[in-house]
Design a protein that fits this description.
heterodimer; A: DNA polymerase, domain 1; 2 domains; 5-stranded mixed β-sheet; B: Aldehyde Oxidoreductase, domain 4; Aldehyde Oxidoreductase, domain 4; 3 domains; 7-stranded mixed β-sheet; 22 helices; 32 strands
């Protein structure tokens, strides 16, 4: 039987300890060991982006990261996007623009879009389309997602 | 952005409230099937055939069972012997024997990816290791992978006992052709003789997948009392219950299906795959068993939509009237009979008033996964052929393609070749809206650019729905329904109840219930949910209003007929100054007779068919064959758009699935019947970078069969895109594409051939 490894990390601002097998992905540990099922598995090989998380602020597919790799690092998942004061502007704009239908890709899109706006607060439509090309949505045709992200950028600029 | 063509006086219907389940879905809290976790749960994995066609000589599971952590193994022999009986499962009729053999193979495997055995273990990794220890002795047979090959008399047969049913008669002919049906109207020979222009063309389309982002999953607990509970993502909890009852030979009352949130379906999550397997593993182990497919399993082991061969012949007179049309359509059913050929046949000429028609359709088995419905099943293949020929005829006659369509458009009273006469439909209005759109009126400029149009039809269905509305003490309501919500239908259903109750949408809380908690409700499919379950919600709300009027009457000590209700306020006919709001009456339910609960069930027959007309501008790189979509407008008759944002969303999503189908999606098979691109990377669905904004124009021609005029909207937007894109490519570079997908290689070859 494989030996489990003890990993200490920060997830959504909290110190977390977990045990995992060396072969387990970050996505598997988030979902099956830590109960953070907001990150979704659509392909398990980095093609769809439904499992997007931030690792030290960098957008990654958590299915392509081994759980042992996050030792001593900072992970942000969809569960960490909304603050204590309510929804993040991206979440609010996704709702207002009806930018989700089934919703399975939504956590990944919101995490990915946050990574974009952190880097580039005022993206163009092309910037958003380019950045989000790693996230697949099969329901919406992307139109309302792109509008929601652009509108969130506008709302966040107005607040600053 | 959308334009709404008609204004109405509704208060809630036609507005855009935030969906009730929205916060859970943007915060990651919503529980989908794959998120379900039960105490003591085991994990299952399925062993699948590496061959497209083979006989199973023997299966040895002993080494797998010996692996530490493995708790049980099942094979097809663990399923009860299946009845040879056809049942209707929503969008498609299914033979239970075939359904059972598709769940776990019998003596033969009929496609690569066909389930052969399954393991339950303490972790998914151990279960996966155990699969490699199962030894299957296969006698490999040559596969049949193309519909026309499969139809030949010399073809290798998939099923020894399959005999063609031809024009309703069961023949003795052993064949891969399961059925041949025909529709005929008027006198096609005479119609073609009257034509000044006759065009006949052949079309082929590749197999494509629905491509939902969430993979199939099922968690089953076969309890010691003989009750089976299943948690999963499905389009229809009751449909799963019925299929499980048939396959496992259990009474429906012993099966409870609890629908989790569902991550897309598009028709692909109606048939059962994992559910009986998880159930059998649970029965053997006494523990709950969860199985989740990986993406390759979804491509190889679940139902795509058929590859097809279609030949269309159409004739028209010089003045632009279609005089006759004929179609020969052969659809791949996959490994078992049951392609959507019937729907394809009914749709192929549905937008037009044609006096003389003949349509022949063939349902053909091939060594590919058993097909499942995919958004307007069968209609997109058909429209690719017919709408391309319509475009070619219009061109030959020197007519604008939309004006040609307008001249031949089906209207109220037009008889379709398969029999029905249309009630009030909105096809003409979609063509007129397209003609008048900013898009169509703006000239297209550039090099190698082209504009294409095409139309499409989908019936929509009614089926059965149940809704219960509970009035809460604070005057809000809870609405319990059985339609799983894939795209915002909780809200579009609750809005219809709110309209009747005079409440804001936010005050009607929708809840999707399981099979033990709500009356029978058919699948979320057939574009029926907002129409039919919405209808049930209206009826249930009417019942609530009736009971609430009685309560107001009791408070005022008058007769119920003395109480009227408008805009959420009860009025007393005997006392003009007296009025009570819905909330005020709700606060007094305990003192006036107890709780108010309104229930209703419907099986509506007044289903409104839906038409769509799409316009696309694109640019072709003639050297590489790559197509760039420049501008896209989808026009559609929604009857009445309950929540316009979600109607637009259906139109945009359907159009983009159609764009993917048109330009690059396909099951790419090698000679042995292996799909060479069974991953999202290689199957290549459209990404955000591949597309412009998708403009929408909602036309509202009310459906007389629904209290608010609602028509189903979900499916028809996938019907026109493939043909519209083919027509645009012709305008751009002068080649007529007759194979989908129109991938760069195909286009470049056609451009090269034309140059010679």
């Amino acid at each position: 039987m494989p030996t489990k490894v003890h990993v200490q990390t920060r997830i959504n601002g909290e110190e977390i300890d977990f045990l995992c097998e060396p072969r387990q992905s970050l996505l598997e540990v988030l979902r099956d060991e830590l109960g953070l099922t907001g990150s979704k598995e659509g392909c398990n090989n980095g093609n769809c982006g439904a499992c997007s998380v931030l690792l030290d602020g960098v957008l990654v597919d958590s299915c392509l990261v081994l759980a042992v790799e996050v030792a001593g690092r900072e992970v942000t998942t969809i569960e960490g996007i909304a603050g204590t004061n309510g929804l993040h502007p991206l979440q609010q704009k996704f709702l207002e623009h009806a930018a989700l239908q089934c919703g399975i890709c939504t956590p990944g899109f919101i995490v990915a879009a946050k990574a974009l706006l952190d880097k580039k607060p005022q993206p163009t439509e092309h910037d958003v389309r380019h950045w989000l090309a790693g996230n697949l949505c099969r329901c919406t045709g992307y139109d309302k997602i792109i509008r929601a992200v652009l509108d969130a950028a506008k709302a966040m600029e107005a607040k600053v | 952005m959308a334009e709404t063509m008609e204004k109405t006086s509704y208060k809630v219907v036609g507005t855009r409230p935030i969906r009730h389940d929205g916060v859970d879905k943007v915060t990651g809290r919503a529980i989908y099937g794959g998120d379900v976790r039960l105490t003591g749960m085991l994990h299952g994995k399925v062993l699948r055939s590496p061959h497209a066609h083979a006989r199973i000589r023997a299966i040895d599971v002993s080494r797998a069972l010996a692996l530490p952590g493995v708790r049980a193994v099942v094979t097809g022999k663990d399923l009860p012997p299946a009845e040879d009986r056809v049942v209707n499962l929503g969008e498609a009729a299914v033979n239970l024997k075939y359904l059972s053999e598709n769940v776990l193979a019998g003596d033969k495997v009929l496609y690569r990816g066909h389930a052969v055995a399954a393991v339950a273990a303490t972790s998914p990794h151990i279960a996966e290791e155990a699969l490699s220890l199962i030894q299957v002795d296969y006698e490999v047979l040559p596969p049949v992978l193309d519909v026309r090959e499969a139809m030949k008399d010399s073809a290798i047969l998939l099923h020894e006992n399959l005999k063609t049913k031809s024009l309703g008669e069961q023949t003795d002919k052993q064949s891969n052709i399961a059925t041949h049906n025909q529709f005929k109207l008027g006198d096609p020979a005479k119609g073609f003789a009257e034509a000044d222009v006759v065009i006949e063309r052949e079309f082929t389309t590749a197999t494509v997948h629905q491509g939902y982002i969430e993979t199939h999953n099922a968690t089953a607990l076969w309890n010691a009392d003989g009750r089976l509970t299943v948690w999963e993502s499905t389009q229809g909890a009751f449909t799963v219950q019925r299929q499980l009852s048939a396959v496992l030979q259990l009474p429906v009352s012993n099966i409870r299906v609890i629908p989790a949130e569902i991550g897309g379906g598009f028709g692909g999550k109606i048939n059962i795959y994992l559910e009986p397997v998880a159930a059998l593993l649970s029965k053997k182990t006494g523990r709950p068993v969860k199985i989740v497919m990986n993406r390759q399993e979804v491509f190889e082991g679940t139902g795509p939509t058929p590859g097809s061969y279609i030949r269309v012949k159409m004739g028209a007179s010089k003045d632009g009237r279609i005089t006759a049309a004929q179609a020969y359509m052969a659809y791949e059913a996959g490994a078992f009979p049951g392609s959507p050929i019937g729907a394809g046949m009914m749709c192929i000429f549905a937008p037009y008033d044609i006096p003389n028609v003949q349509i022949d359709g063939f349902d053909v088995v091939v060594n590919k996964p058993k097909t499942a419905p995919y958004r307007a099943p069968g209609a997109t293949n058909a429209a690719f052929a017919s709408e391309t020929v319509v475009d070619e005829i219009a061109e030959k006659l020197g007519m604008d393609p939309l004006q040609f369509r307008l001249k031949n458009a089906a209207k109220e009273g037009t008889r379709r070749a398969d029999g029905p006469t249309y009630p009030r439909i909105g096809y003409v209005e979609t063509v007129e809206a397209a003609l008048n759109s900013d898009h169509y009126r703006t000239p297209l400029e550039g090099v190698n650019v082209g504009r294409g149009v095409a139309s499409g039809f989908w019936f929509n269905v009614g089926f059965q729905s149940s809704v219960t509305i509970n009035v809460n003490a604070d005057g809000t309501c809870t609405l319990v329904e059985g339609s799983t919500d894939i795209g915002g239908t909780r809200t579009s259903i609750a809005m219809q109840a709110a309209e009747v109750l005079g409440l804001p949408a936010e005050d009607v809380h929708p809840l999707v219930a399981d099979t033990d908690a709500v009356g029978f409700t058919d699948v979320t499919g057939g574009s029926r949910t907002t129409f039919a379950t919405g209808y049930a919600a209206i009826e249930a709300a009417n019942e609530v209003v009736r009971q609430m009027r009685e309560r107001a009457a009791r408070i005022w000590k008058v007769e119920p007929q003395d109480v009227t209700f408008a805009d959420g306020v009860f009025h007393n006919a005997k006392d003009a100054s007296a009025h009570l709001t819905f909330k005020e009456v709700a606060a007094q339910l305990g003192r006036t007779g107890g709780p108010v609960v309104g229930s209703a069930t419907v099986a509506p027959r007044g289903v409104g068919g839906a038409f769509a007309t799409h316009i696309v501008d694109l640019q072709v790189d003639p050297e590489t064959g790559k197509v760039t979509i420049l501008r896209y407008t989808a026009v559609q008759d929604a009857g009445k758009a309950v929540h316009p944002s979600y109607v637009e969303g259906q139109m945009q999503g359907g159009a983009v699935q159609g764009i993917g189908w048109a330009l690059n999606e396909e099951y790419f098979y090698n000679d042995t019947g292996t799909m060479a691109n069974a991953s999202f990377l290689d199957y290549r669905m459209p990404t955000s970078l591949d597309l412009p904004m998708i403009d929408t124009i909602i036309v509202e021609v009310p459906n007389p069969g629904h209290p608010f005029g609602v028509r189903g909207v979900g499916e028809v937007p996938i019907v026109p895109p493939v043909a519209a894109i083919a027509n645009a490519i012709y305008r751009a570079v002068g080649v007529r594409m007759r194979h989908a997908p129109m991938s760069p290689g195909h286009i470049a070859m056609e451009v090269l051939a034309k140059g010679k």
